[in-house]
Design goal:
With 605 residues, the protein is an alpha+beta fold. Helix content is 38%, strand content 23%. The strands form four sheets. Strands 3-2-1-6-5-4 form a six-stranded antiparallel sheet, sandwiched between helices. Residues 36-182, 210-372 form the GAF domain.
Length: 605
C-alpha cells in the first residue's frame, strides 16, 4: 500500500462554502485536468519560478475536498509525486474564497493560515497567489509563488505574476471551451444515433412475430448506444412481471445480467421502480442512483450484489404501453455504471418513445402468439387420436409453417372397421386459413361417416365422397388418399385410391423404398366428379406405409420429382428406426417448409 501524505487523515483547516459552488466545480471538471502533469501548465509554473526567482511555483486548482497541481515546480516529496494535497495543506483555497490575490510575506504571522499544515509540512512561508478564473469569473484556483523563508514581494513581481495568471486563466478557459465543444459534438452524435435508432427500431422489431425474439432485439438495440445495460420486462394478465430479458455491453456480464433478469420476475418489492411504472404507467428517472434505490427495489441480497457488479449509478424506467390504450404490458429499464454520464431528461424522452414503439411491435407479436396458440389448438382438435390395431403400429405428425399463424387444410385419419380392417386417409384442402380448416373438418367427417362399416372398394367410397362434396356445395378443392389395409398372406393387403395427392411410399423391412405409384386422378370437389379407380399392393411384416401431404416435398424453386427423390433417399435404411423417430426425422429436415405438413405412418406387425 502506498504511503499517505503527512496530515492526509486530518480534517481540512477551514470550511469554505465557496469551494462547493456547483458551477465552479462543473467548470473545474470541464477543464479535464487532474493531478497529473500538463505541459502547458508546467510551462506557467517554470515561468513563475524563473521570473520571480522562487523555489516553488504551482498552478493549483481547488475542489471542495483537495487541491491538485497540473503545473508544479519545486514541491518536496511525497507531494511532488502525488501532485495534490488535502485542503488542510492549502493556501490557495483562501484565494478561491476571497476571489482576490493573497500576498503573504510571512504566512506564520497571519491568523487565517498560520495553523495551516502547509507551513510545517511543505515549508510554505512566503506566499503570493493570483486567482485563476473561468469565463464567468468563478475562481478555480490560483497561480502561486512560494518561498520557504520570509520575503517582500515587489510590485514588479506581483505584476508579472498577475500577467502570467491572466494567461493561465485564458488557457483554462480554452480547455473548458474545448470540453464544451467536444461535449456538444458528442451530444450531436448521440442525437443522430438516437434518431437512427428510433427510425430503425420499428424495422428491427417488425422482423419477427415471436415475442421472445422481439424483446431480445429491443434490449440489444439500446445497448450500448443508450445504456451500459438494459432490461425489458413483460407482464402477465394480472400485470405482474412474468418474463424479463437483460443485455449488458460487457460480454463478461452476460450470465450476471441474465440472472438479474430472472430474479426480477419474483424478487421485486412493491416499491420497486419497475412495479411502480407498471402500476402507474408513468416513467421514472433516477439520474443519480443510490444504495437506497436498490434496497427499495428488493430485499434479495443476490439482486443487490448483482446490480453493484453490473454497474448501478444511474437508471431510468419507461412503460411499454399497449398500442392504442392506457394499459401497460411491460417496462424498459436502462442502467448506467459510474463510468458513464447520468441519464437526463433527453434520455428519458428517447426511452419513452422507444417504449411506445416497442409496445406496438411487442403487442403485435403478443397477439400473434395468442392467435397462433388458438390456431394450433383448433388444428390439433380436428386431428384424431390414432387407433390401436393388432395388424399395425401407427404414428402421425402435423407441423404448421413456423412463420405463419393461420391454420390450414392438411389432415390425416385412421380408424378400425367393424370387421377389423384398418382405414387410413390423408388429404389437403386448398388454403391456409380458418375456412380451409373448417372445410378440412367437414371433409374428414364425410370420410369417416361415409366409409365406416362399408366393405365396398375404396374407389367407390372416394366417388361417393366426391359426389357429397359437390352435392353439399362444399367450396373446396381437395387432394386425398383413402386406403384399406386387410389381413393377407405374410402381412397386409392394401388397396388405395389417389385423388391428386402425392404418392404413398413404402419402406420395406429390408430398408428399400418403393412408391405406390400410378397416375394421380383429379382432385375431389371439382365441378364434374371424376371416375375413380382402386389400386392394390401388399405389405410384408416390418414394412412401413407412409402417407404425407405436399408440404413435405414441394418447393417453389425446385421440381417435385427432385424433392421426392431426396425424400426417398432420406428414407433409405430407416426400416429399423422406431416409427415416432422416423416421423421426427422427416419433419426435422433443415429445409425451410413453405406449407403445412401432415404425416401418417403405418408399420405392419
Amino acid at each position: 500500500m502506498s504511503e499517505r501524505p503527512p496530515g492526509a487523515d486530518r480534517p481540512p483547516a477551514t470550511d469554505l462554502p465557496a469551494l462547493g459552488d456547483p458551477g465552479r466545480l462543473r467548470s473545474l471538471a470541464d477543464t479535464g485536468l487532474d493531478a497529473v502533469p500538463d505541459e502547458a501548465f508546467e510551462r506557467f509554473a517554470r515561468l513563475v519560478s524563473d521570473l520571480l526567482d522562487v523555489p516553488v511555483a504551482l498552478v493549483s486548482l481547488v475542489t471542495d475536498t483537495r487541491q491538485f497541481f497540473p503545473g508544479a515546480v519545486g514541491l518536496p516529496e511525497p507531494w511532488a509525486g502525488r501532485r495534490e494535497t488535502p485542503l488542510s495543506h492549502s493556501f490557495c483555497q483562501h484565494v478561491v474564497d476571497l476571489e482576490i490575490p493573497m500576498v503573504l510575506p510571512d504566512a506564520r504571522l497571519y491568523p487565517r493560515v498560520r495553523q495551516n499544515l502547509a507551513i510545517a509540512e511543505l515549508g510554505v512561508v512566503a506566499y503570493a497567489g493570483i486567482p485563476l478564473t473561468d469565463l464567468d469569473g468563478r475562481v478555480l484556483g490560483s497561480l502561486c509563488a512560494i518561498d520557504s523563508k520570509p520575503r517582500t514581494w515587489t510590485a514588479t513581481q506581483l505584476r508579472t505574476l498577475t500577467d502570467l495568471a491572466a494567461a493561465c486563466s485564458s488557457e483554462l478557459r480554452l480547455r473548458i471551451a474545448l470540453d464544451g465543444a467536444e461535449e456538444a459534438r458528442r451530444r450531436a452524435e448521440e442525437a443522430h444515433d438516437r434518431l437512427e435508432l428510433l427510425a430503425g427500431l420499428s424495422e428491427i422489431l417488425s422482423g419477427t412475430l415471436d415475442v421472445d425474439t422481439a424483446v431480445s432485439r429491443l434490449a440489444e438495440a439500446v445497448v450500448p448506444l443508450l445504456a451500459d445495460w438494459a432490461l425489458v420486462t413483460l407482464v402477465d394478465r394480472s400485470r405482474q412481471p412474468r418474463r424479463a430479458t437483460g443485455v449488458h455491453r460487457d460480454p463478461a456480464h452476460t450470465a450476471g445480467v441474465a440472472r438479474f433478469a430472472d430474479l426480477m420476475t419474483t424478487r421485486l418489492s412493491s416499491h420497486s421502480v419497475t412495479r411502480t411504472v407498471l402500476r402507474t404507467g408513468q416513467p421514472v428517472l433516477g439520474g443519480e442512483a443510490t444504495p437506497e434505490d436498490l434496497k427499495r427495489a428488493t430485499d434479495d441480497p443476490e439482486m443487490i450484489a448483482l446490480a453493484e457488479r453490473l454497474g448501478f449509478a444511474s437508471h431510468l424506467t419507461v412503460p411499454v404501453p399497449v398500442s392504442g390504450g392506457t394499459d401497460v404490458m411491460g417496462t424498459v429499464t436502462l442502467v448506467n455504471g459510474a463510468g458513464r454520464r447520468p441519464f437526463d431528461d433527453s434520455d428519458l424522452r428517447t426511452a419513452v418513445e422507444i417504449g411506445r414503439r416497442a409496445g406496438q411491435a411487442v403487442g403485435n407479436s403478443w397477439m400473434y402468439g395468442e392467435q397462433r396458440h388458438v390456431a394450433e389448438v383448433l388444428q390439433h382438435s380436428m386431428l384424431p387420436s390414432l387407433p390401436e390395431s393388432p395388424m399395425a403400429e401407427l404414428a402421425a405428425r402435423y407441423q404448421p409453417v413456423a412463420d405463419r399463424v393461420e391454420v390450414g387444410g392438411d389432415w390425416y385419419d385412421a380408424f378400425v372397421q367393424p370387421d377389423g380392417d384398418l382405414m387410413v386417409a390423408i388429404g389437403d384442402v386448398a388454403g391456409h386459413d380458418i375456412e380451409a380448416a373448417a372445410t378440412m373438418g367437414q371433409v374428414r367427417n364425410l370420410v369417416r361417416g361415409d366409409t365406416f362399416g362399408r366393405t365396398d372398394p375404396v374407389h367407390e367410397q372416394m366417388s361417393r365422397l366426391d359426389a357429397a362434396i359437390s352435392g353439399l356445395r362444399i367450396p373446396a378443392a381437395v387432394t386425398a388418399i383413402l386406403a384399406r389395409l386387410s389381413p393377407g398372406a405374410g402381412g397386409l393387403a392394401v388397396s388405395w385410391c389417389n385423388a391428386g395427392h402425392p404418392p404413398p411410399l413404402v419402406v420395406t423391412a429390408d430398408g428399400a423404398v418403393r412408391t405406390l405409384g400410378g397416375p394421380r386422378e383429379p382432385l375431389l370437389g371439382l365441378t364434374r366428379p371424376s371416375r375413380r379407380t382402386s389400386r392394390r399392393s401388399s405389405l410384408a411384416v416390418g414394412d412401413t406405409l407412409l402417407l404425407y401431404t405436399d408440404g413435405l416435398v414441394e418447393r417453389r424453386d425446385r421440381p417435385i420429382d427432385e424433392t421426392l427423390a431426396e425424400l426417398v433417399d432420406l428414407l433409405a435404411g430407416t426400416a429399423r428406426l422406431p416409427l415416432a423417430e422416423l416421423c421426427d426425422l422427416l419433419l426435422g429436415s433443415h429445409q425451410r417448409r413453405e406449407d403445412d405438413v401432415a404425416l401418417l405412418a403405418v408399420r405392419v406387425r
